[in-house]
Design goal:
Blueprint lengths: L4 E4 L4 E3 L8 E5 L6 H12 L8 E5 L3 H11 L4 E4 L4 H5 L3 E2 L2 E2 L2 E5 L5 E6 L6 H17 L3 H5 L13 H11 L12 E5 L2 H8 L14 E7 L6 E2 L3 E2 H19 L3 E5 L4 H8 L4 E9 L9 H8 L15
Helix pairs in contact: 6-8
The structure holds flavin mononucleotide.
The site of flavin mononucleotide has 9 residues, from strand 14.
């Protein structure tokens, strides 16, 4: 949403900042009191509670005429006056000097999520409500890539482009860290020679990683991050966050990214000249080849996700 500051029908200032943190419907109409604008206002008014009160009407009318329009029709929501159509222009809904009847759904981050330009009034508020409800429902569901992600082992050996591998690192690098120390370090192993070298360090149970076209060595050092009281050394924590981001990004890109602890860290460090801690290796590849898997792993590949009850890991106090 563009930044703005306008007056309400009560001559109070209302700014774009007031929209943040909630879902809003902002609808623009040409002139208070005309039949179309009255019907539209009444229909939004009827749905006021369903919108959790987060409806706002904007028009070029003066605050005075907005005040009498609101009173006359018992409107529950705030009306904003945009006398010079500055906000309307910024939203590109002014044509030949006239405001085009339009509606926007704005999310808690101030992003416009849906727009209707050149609105037909009757039934419009109901249609907006259906979309508003759907957007909220989708936003409140678990992120689809988090839901889809699994520690899959059935990897195809098809190479993955460097561009995609680097996109995973980019996502990891957007993780938060203590004082923004960014302690994570990655070595993306994807040439045949280097992969074979790394295979020597894998534990027997991680034989399936030999089919991965890329293995990412994740390493860090305590000195790279905050070292606070009570042994709170944040390098491992922050590097773990980064790996979490990497896994979610990979899933979104249709790739498996599977972190493991089953390897000889000393061997990895020696082979790749790493100083510090090798905290995980992440196998990356496309899913869909299962012939190489042991019976146990094949079964796991198709098994439902296994988690203890949520109540065992959380307390609401
Ligand atoms: C730190 C860590 C170490 C892991 N080590 C191994 C491993 O050595 N070999 C393996 O096959 N899977 C390994 N996994 C995968 C876990 O077994 C898997 O994430 C867990 O069973 C939950 O399954 P899900 O990821 O499909 O939800 C590891 C996962 C993590 C986070």
């Amino acid at each position: 949403m563009v930044e703005f500051s306008l007056l309400t029908e009560e001559d109070q200032t209302f700014t774009s900042q007031d929209l943040l943190g909630n879902y809003w419907v902002m609808y623009f109409y040409p002139k208070a009191g005309t039949s179309g604008c009255t019907l539209e206002a009444q229909q939004f008014n009827e749905l006021f509670e369903q919108f959790d009160g987060h409806v706002i009407g904007v028009s070029p009318d003066s605050t005075k005429s907005l005040s009498s329009f609101k009173e006359k029709h018992g409107l529950k929501f705030t009306l904003l006056s945009d006398p010079n159509k500055e906000l309307a222009q910024a939203l590109e809904i002014v044509k030949n000097g006239k405001l085009i009847r339009s509606t926007f759904i704005v999310d808690p981050w101030g992003r416009i999520r849906r727009e209707w330009i050149n609105v037909k009034v009757d039934g419009h508020a109901q249609e907006v409500f259906e979309v508003y409800r759907k957007i909220r429902e989708e936003d409140f569901s678990i992120n689809p890539s988090i839901l889809q992600r699994r520690a899959f082992r059935g990897l195809r050996s098809d190479p993955i482009e460097d561009e995609k591998l680097l996109r995973l690192i980019e996502a990891a690098h957007l993780a938060p860290s203590c004082s923004n120390k960014q302690p994570w370090r990655f070595i993306v192993v994807r040439t045949k020679e280097n992969l074979e070298k790394l295979h020597e360090a894998l534990s027997g149970g991680n034989y399936w990683m030999k089919y991965a076209p890329a293995l990412i060595i994740v390493h860090t050092k305590d000195e790279f991050d905050c070292q606070l009281s009570d042994e709170r050394n944040y390098a491992l924590f922050d590097t773990g966050l980064a790996v979490g981001f990497l896994l979610v990004q990979a899933t979104q890109m249709g790739l498996v990214a599977h972190p493991v602890a089953g390897y000889d860290p000393i061997k990895v460090k020696t082979l790749f000249g790493i100083d510090g801690r090798v905290i995980t290796l992440v196998a990356v590849g496309k899913w869909g080849r299962f012939e190489q898997l042991s019976e146990k792993h094949l079964e796991l590949e198709k098994s439902p996700r296994n988690r203890v009850e949520l109540s065992q890991v959380v307390k609401l106090v």
